[in-house]
């Protein structure tokens, strides 16, 4: 399955105990890179990461979780009564000593941090399963986006392949004409130098030598082989991440195109070499966005 590495999704979920909102954003990255922001979930975060990594093999995954506890049973509330009693006693004694009026209200006393503690109870297994299901559903939305963009990139890559193959056919035809053109150039050069003593056999040897020097058949065959490998990775039945393999093949295509361009002598071949190099560069930029 061809998938890109970019996507964004957010979803909200409610249960009797929890209100959960999940944000997921995925970006390009050479490896799997997990970033989690939100309340400390302990081992549950590792479970979320495992779920994610089973479905996304490469890319940066940024997750933000917002969790609200709706049930009173989800919280622990405690009043430090001995401390509160002692504080009231001390404050009253201080009021008597100074002659000041003691008029603090209970609500004012309860605002003092040591007096009241409110803690979240640990998540139950049911709560954890609910959060996992919420995360998984949001992740599925991301996967759909990545697959949709992957299909579009695949179509673009096929167009690049088609144009490269077309240029290669032109280059092959031009290369087939090179022996005759080289022969004509040699004959003309000899005439310009008033040197017509070169035998037919010697002339053929010179042409053969130049053809060997400028031979691009090997580069053309390697380019065809790499193009075939790319096309096979883009087949609908491929059920594995192909981004790294396509990136490697794009580099190999670029290397062969550069060699072909360096050896080419015909202006027409050079022109199509440049067209091929432009197509390959566009391919390289696109495949770097694939998982």
Give a description of the structure:
The mean pLDDT is 84. The chain folds into three domains: 7-72 and 124-144, Ribosomal Protein S5, domain 2 (2-Layer Sandwich); 81-114, no CATH class; 151-287, no CATH class. Helix 4 (125-176) packs antiparallel against helix 7 (217-233), helix 4 (125-176) runs antiparallel to helix 9 (267-287) and helix 5 (178-192) packs across helix 6. Helices cover 60% and strands 15% of the residues. 21% of the residues are buried. It has helices spanning 43-55, 81-98, 106-110, 125-176, 178-192, 200-213, 217-233, 243-263, 267-287; strands at residues 7-14, 18-27, 32-37, 59-69, 75-79, 116-120. The longest helix has 52 residues, at 125-176. It has 291 residues and is an alpha+beta fold.
In short:
Helices cover 60% and strands 15% of the residues. It has 291 residues and is of the alpha+beta class.
Which keywords apply here?
291 residues, alpha+beta, Ribosomal Protein S5, domain 2, 4-stranded mixed sheet, two-stranded antiparallel ribbon, 9 helices, 60% helix, rod-shaped
